[in-house]
Amino acid sequence: MRLVVRIGGSVVASPVNTELMSKYADLIKTVKAQGHDVAVVLGGGALAREFIGIAKNLGLDMTAQDEIAISCSRLFAQLFLKKLGEVGCSKVAITLDDAAQCLAEGKVVVMGGLKPGITTDAVAALVAERVNADLLLKGSDQEGVYNKDPRSNPDAVKLDNLPFEGFSKIFEGSVHKAGIHQIIDPEAIKVLKRHRVKLVVVNGFKPENILAAIEGKNVGTTIS
Ligand code: UTP
Questions:
Q1: Cα(69) to centroid of ligand 1, in Å?
Q2: pTM
Q3: Where are the domains of the chain?
């Protein structure tokens, strides 16, 4: 299969968890050795949010704030790529063309942000679209997608399966802001829906969930 794995900055980078990053590197090597094509997209986490705050305090506009956050995510991508070693591409992919070319060379793509105005979830969806991925996996800081925000609603219920259409209803009216945190960016869903790319959102603090989802086991929330 052709897979895009999106590792939330809220999972490996808030605070930075090198043990978990190492586990993810091992996991990606395993998945690659199983014969899958893999692209990994990392976010900037708390570091990106801190830098967005600094940019804001300097009076910089949203585009500049986003650009700074993208640089932070690319730093994590660089660390992850180095940790992956020779199965990874020679450089962090900074365009969709880079990503496609790296996959064509049989290497694991690693990237952070792409352009201002979107999130790393949307980047993962755009990569999935570009390389015709079969599946997008997101390691998030929650067990999956809930019918309402579980952080402010204790009675929220986790959904095992969700059609693309149902997702759009839950997240209606959401707009981009630098550093916004959502379980999955609705903009990413729009891209995936267009191309019918399946998405599984799992608890990223347990990387083995990603493996389980690839094997088709019932874990997290499947959006299709
Ligand atoms: P994310 O919110 O996507 O990263 O990007 P994250 O840390 O992995 O987030 P979680 O774990 O899903 O919450 C952080 C910020 O970087 C900018 C946006 O401001 C975004 O909110 N960004 C990221 C871009 O502007 N463009 C990109 O392509 C990626």
A1: 7
A2: 0.93
A3: 2-223
